[in-house]
Structures are given as C-alpha cells and as structure tokens.
Amino acid sequence: MRQLVGHIAGLLILVFGLPACDAIREADDQTNRISKHTADEQARLRAAQRGKIHEVNRPYFGSPVEVERGSRRGKPLPRKLEGARSISISTGGSAVDIKSLADLISQQAGLLVNIRTVYSLPDGDVIRIPIGTTMRVDHEGSLSKLLDQIGARMDIAWSYDGKAITFDRMVTERYKVSLPVGTAKLSSSIDGVKGGGRSVSLNSDVGGYDPWAELQSQLRAVAPPPAQVTFAKSSGRVTVFGPPSVQARAAAVIEDFDEVFSTRIGLEVAVYFVDTSKSDSFAVGLQGSRRSGHASITGVVGALTGNGVATLSNHLGAVNFQSLANNASVVDYRLGSTIAQSGVISPIVLTRSQNFVARTTTTTDINGVTSTAVETDTVDTGISIHALPRLVKRNRVQLSLTVLQNDLTELTTFDSGNSTVHLPTVDQRALQNDSVLAPGETLILSGYEQDRATRSNSGAGKAKFLGLGGRTRGEVKKIRMVVLVRPAIIPAAS
Q1: From its phi and psi, is residue 68 left (phi > 0), alpha (psi between -120 and 50) or beta?
Q2: What are phi and psi of 114, to 5 degrees?
Q3: Contact indicator for 230, 239 with CB cutoff of 8 Å
Q4: What is the rounded CA–CA span in Å between residue 397 and residue 40?
Q5: What's the pTM?
Q6: What would the pLDDT profile of 236-252 be if each residue is shown by its tens digit?
Q7: CB 362 within 8 A of CB 370
Q8: What is the rounded radius of gyration, in angstroms, for the C-alpha atoms of the chain?
Q9: What is the rounded (10 degree) CA torsion for 202, 205, 206, 210?
Q10: Pairing of strands 164-168, 112-116
C-alpha cells in the first residue's frame, strides 16, 4: 500500500512539475530577449550619438524588392493591391477607352470602378464632358501607379473612398491667397503759385493697382471654358473647376501670386532739414561698416547740392538714421517706419495742427449791444509720406514715393475795424520718385530748399533801440530737405 501511494505521489509531481519547468524556461527566454533588445537599442543610441554606423545582426534572405507606388487620393488602396506583382494588365498593344480600362481594373482588383463625366455648375446648369482619349496599357505592379499613368495620359483624376475607385473628368480645387482686399490708388495734388493768369501745380496719379484683376486675367488664360474660376476676395479664396492639367497650371499661377503678396515689406523713412552752410559736414554721424567708411557716405550726400537722387548700396551694412539727428547741420528731423504688403499703400503722417482766427463777425442787436463771433480754422504742418511698394523680380522693391511737407513760416495779425484775424503763410514742398531698390539700399532725395529768417533782440528798456544796453541779431539761412528711404523684405513664416 505504501509503495502504491509513493508511485501516485511521484506521478503527481511529474505531472504538475513539468509545466512549471516549461513556464520558468519560457519566462527566462522572454527576459533574455528583452535584455538583448535593450542592449541592442543602447548600442544603437550610443553609435548614433557619436555619428557612427550601427549594424544590426539580423538574418536576411533574398533581394530587396522596391515597389514603385503612385499617389494617394482619398483613402489608401488595400495593401494587397500595392505589391510588386499585385496588378498585371495588358491591352495587347491596342489602344482602349476608359470604360475598357475600368472593366479590366475592376476584374483584377475586385473593386467597383466609376466614371464621372456629368457635373452641376454653381449657376444650376448641368454639363457633360466626355473622356475621348484612348491608350495602350502594359503594366505590372501597384494599382496606384497604374491609376496615375491613366490619369496623366487621359487628363483625368482618380480617387478612392474605401469602397470604389472613381475617375473624374473635372475636379474642383480651392486655394488660399494672400492678396490685399482693396485696390491701391495713389494720387497727390499741390496747388502752387497762382496769380496773373498763371498757376503752378503738382499732380501725381499712380492709378488703380488691383492684384485681384491681374490674377483673374492670368487664370482666365490658363483655365479656358468649360473650366471655371470663382473668386472670394473677402475670405482670400480662389476656386478652380477644371481637369487636372488646368489645375496644375492654375496652381502655378496662384503660388507665384501668393509668394509675392505673402512677403511683407518694411519701410524706414527719415526726413532731415539741413543747414546748407554746414551741409559739407552732414552725415558725419552716419554709422556704416568698415568696408565703405564714413567718408564715402559724406561724399554722396554732400554732392547733392542741387536737386538730386542717390542710392546708398546695402554693402554699408547697418546704417543708423537716428545718429544723423546729432549732427550739427541738422535743423530738424522726422523719422517713421512701417510694414506693408506688396501693392498696398503705406501712409506715414507726421503732422502738427495749428489753430488760427479765420473770420470774425460783429453784430448789433436792437438794443445797441454789439457781439462778435469768432470762427477758427486749422492749418496742418509737417510731413506726409505715401509709399506704394511692390515686390518685383529678384526680390527687388519698386517704390512709388510721394512726400508732402507744409511749414507754417508766418502767422500775421490783421486788424479790421474792431476785429482781428490771422493770415497764415504756409510753405509747401513736395517730391515724387519711382525707384527700384534692393533690400537694404538707401534712397536719398535732396535739393529742396527754403529760406528761413530769424531775428532776436536782447536788452531792456528804451535804450536797446539806441543800441545801448541791448543787442539785435538777424540771420538768414537756406534749409535743405533731405529724404532717406530704406526698404527691407520680411519673408513669410514657414
């Protein structure tokens, strides 16, 4: 009996012990595999950090097979149809139409293939555009590559929605553009001397500059009927309805426009009023690089004794307009800067308003009470700059610039009976220029002069009129206006 019990116990140990040993060995193997994988990854990371090549010890049999796949339109095609030998279609050297090709693809791929040639237009009309092209096919490989070949030969598009393949004769694409919403119009007018039947005036009119109209004309040339182009200016969208070839040409035109108008143009403008008697020392404080030096800058500005235009090359490096304000020859200065879009007018207005008595009216009521009503007006003085920058070839900036300057030189008091009015004397100057500048170049406009007379008395009492106890000074200066403009291109963020 004891012997039987011993045999039964041994059998139980053998039955339950063997699976336990297998589990232990499997756990050890799994642990070893994890440890080896971890060590391999650590070695690979160490090699990558040191710029070395890490070879993975893995068995490899056979030769690599590279499958040339086409594009993805909609959902991805089933993996079984994208292999090196998934699709094998041949028309036997004869050209067939799209319907025959659709039947062959449907038979081999096991997918439904649709052909769409009827479309509804936004105005409610329905158009039918047949696919009349035929082609020969001898293809073995992925299905997407075959569909791309058919689309390129027949000028049609294909897509897959997860259930069926659809061939489209026409497609609709929407594009985003950065064109300005409005139309740029730059015009200025200054009345000059009038009298004796003669008048002098200055007028400038750039006219209407409408990027949307230019884009429309170019798209009309690359998308003829039955293709259609729809514009949404307020939202910056362009919708093109047409075959793939039209879409490719339209996309190239829109991309070129968007590249130009998404680039911002920075403008820095400085207006200086320089005493001509000290003009030779003007620009001594201008900061330039060692390559050109201060002397070359002084020579360029000092040479503009009459009406002149010059350009400082961007080889000067960093040029600081603010440093010119510390120059002894500078009587006054105005600085302004802005960031604009190509084809959009950028105004920089640095003005001051001066009120004066323009008219007085005296009335007497029935009781003999006299009352005077005073009417005032305002004269604006200062600088008004209107710039129209346009980005042209090789990142150059075509700049249409108009600078208007009003200076209140005298406010004379005129007495008329019991009332007094003011008669302002305003000096007006204007300059206009159209130039093409490279980013960093500085345009210099000079030669616009005016006379300024000053008188000062010092001393007290009546003795100063006799030349005793006081002093009188008078001075007449010629003040020249110098305008410096520098553009910079700020590329769009990628």
Answers
A1: beta
A2: -105, 150
A3: yes
A4: 57
A5: 0.61
A6: 899 999 999 999 999 99
A7: yes
A8: 42
A9: 160
A10: parallel
